[in-house]
Amino acid sequence: MADIHLELGEYYVYVDGENKPHLAVYIKHGELSEIRGVKNDYQEIEESYRDVAVEFLKNHQGLNHADEWLKKEERNAR
Hints:
alpha+beta, 4 helices
C-alpha cells in the first residue's frame, strides 16, 4: 500500500532522538494532502511539534493548500 502513495507523492516523517515518529506530512501531486501527529490515536499534532509543522510549510511556500493550513493553525493558536 505504501508503494502506491509514494508513487503519487512524498512523505516526510519527523522523529525524535529515540527514532519515535511524531509528525507526518504527505504531499500528493504538489499539494499538501495531510499532516498528522501521534496524539489521540495518531491524528492530532502534539503541541511540541506544531512549530515543526509550521516551519516545514513556511519553507514550502509554493505548496498548494499550505497557506490554508497555516491560516487555520494561526486561528487555532489564538
